[in-house]
Amino acid sequence: MRVDLYQIAIQFIAAKIPFWPRTHAEDLAPRGYYPFGITYPIRFHTTLQQQKMQSFTIAAAALSAIASIPAVSAHGFVQQVTTGGQTYAGASPNWFYTPNNLPDQAGWMAYNQDNGFVEPEAYGSVNISCHEGAKPGNQYIPVKAGDTMDLQWNTWPSSHKGPITAYMARCNGDCTQLQDASSLDWFKIEETGLIDPSSNTWAADKLIEDDFTWTHTIPSNLAAGNFVLRHEIIALHSAGQENGAQNYPMCFNVKVSGSGNAWPCNDGADCRHGDKLYTKKEAGIEFNIYSNPTSYPIPGPKIFSSIASSAKRFARSFIA
């Protein structure tokens, strides 16, 4: 039986790289946008000799990608959320493989099948809000103002040290009907960075220690309504160099109930569109974690003052 490496490679890349079929064949993908950091410049309508060369190139790329799977799969995603004694589906990227049977979930569905990240060069795009090309889930997680939400990742690599932050944004309507996150104004509700400088312990280390779980608290004075919760880990293991930070945002539709009356964006909070959350040169984005730091400036807007007193999970965040 003849094995056609060209067809195998095409099928593999199409399955593993959701952007590839929709991208111009001659475009080069920037690092962080495609699985494995590999780019695939492909040209059709070429000579037979060129096609043979392309077959070899694509097959080699596929084999290289396959060899890289263990390292890439070490990154993770939020697999479930628990609040009020109930557990809800998280934001698994596996929705992509069943497009005709999308899951019922509050987690936003993104093109992060590689468990990849959003790089600083993409901070000016909508992708930084809820990940690559994210669309809202069709459900809500019900939560009371003041309640906690436990977000459990499927895994997280110990080398990927960094802060964990949480934002919320009011939907001004039905979150499930949003086209993307571009219209949302985010306000920060929590942040934790460097927990213990003496042991170089970061928020991400604590997440691993707690069975890959992180707990956020919904502000107790938040007015009832439909919101998107944005949970994010920023991995800093390569952040000592330009464009080296790695953002892993995950979003969830939440329906907040309660008697609170705070609308942070109307009450003086530093609310920002996603493309204004960070700049690629700010101190907490370009940061060397291997220089024995004693403090860390968590990037992004400040926590809204009326909720700041309860917004840090650890008292010793060592925020500069």
UniProtKB/TrEMBL annotation:
Its main location: secreted. Keywords: Disulfide bond, Secreted. Pfam families: AA9. Its cofactor is Cu(2+). InterPro entries: AA9, AA9_LPMO. The keyword Lipid biosynthesis does not apply. GO terms for cellular component: extracellular region. Residues 75-296 form the Auxiliary Activity family 9 catalytic domain. It is found in: Secreted. The keyword Secreted applies. PANTHER family: ENDO-BETA-1,4-GLUCANASE D (PTHR33353:SF34), PUTATIVE (AFU_ORTHOLOGUE AFUA_1G12560)-RELATED (PTHR33353). This is Auxiliary Activity family 9 catalytic domain-containing protein. It comes from Hortaea werneckii (Black yeast).
